[in-house]
Amino acid sequence: AHPNIVKLFKTQQDGSTSYVAMELGDCSLAAAISSVAVGSEYEPVAICKSVAEGLRHLHASGFVHGNVTPSNIVMFGPTPKLCGFSCARVVEPTIATKMNNMRGTPGYQPLEILARKHFASTEVHSPEAIDVFSLGCTMFFIMSGGEEPFRSAKEARTTENVELNILSGASGIEVSSISAEGQHLLPRMFCPGPSDRASLDN
After folding, report:
1. CB under 8 Å to 38, separation ≥6 — which residues?
2. Which of 35, 119, 151, 172 measures 20 to 30 Å from 1, CA to CA?
3. 124 bridge partner residues
């Protein structure tokens, strides 16, 4: 158990459908972000740190989340908890991890997934780096008060444009209003090469 990961109480299978009972929070981070923006009980830096701690614990336990987004983080008062584990995978240190290409959220998937988007799955050797990229996108959302990277305000907000911006590395960080610390850290989380991205351990 970890204070920044939702507790699972029960799972049940009905044919091909799975049901999961988990603790109930107040709302998703995506819904709460307006409160973050106006500086009420939610503290953006503390939320970013807590989500990163939960994700680091998940990795240390041998799993990757596969789809870290503001909608997959539930708020319990000021405390964020990771949820939404439909893309999660077990990581085996000696073999590639097969990641689902179809379930991830557009705008939160890195280059190595986009390059194989026409396939149902892809095998990756650094699955934790996928989570680092999507965590970076989520942190940008938190720090900017609800904006998403790779989505230019001057462009139509289509999935195709977002993917083109990810492919070209046009994150929009340099014209954003996020802090200097965020502008220093996030480009390292958005590196095209998985092995070049920042690690949750540092």
Report:
1. none
2. 35
3. 97
How many distinct helices (H) and strands (E) make up the chain?
6, 9
The residue written with tokens 């709302």 in the block is 27
Q: What is the pTM of this model?
A: 0.87
Blockwise average pLDDT, block size 10, the chain, 202 residues: 92 83 90 64 87 96 94 93 91 83 82 77 86 95 88 64 82 79 91 92 75
- Which of 172, 169, 173, 165 is closest to 191 using CA atoms? 169
List beta partners, residue 64.
89
Look at residue 62 and give its three-state secondary structure: coil
Q: Going by C-beta distance under 8 Å and a sequence separation of 6 or more, which residues neighbour residue 192?
A: 110, 111, 169
Both tokens of 89, joined, read: 């995978």
The tokens for 72 are 């997959």
Q: Is 69 left (phi over 0), alpha (psi -120 to 50) or beta?
A: beta
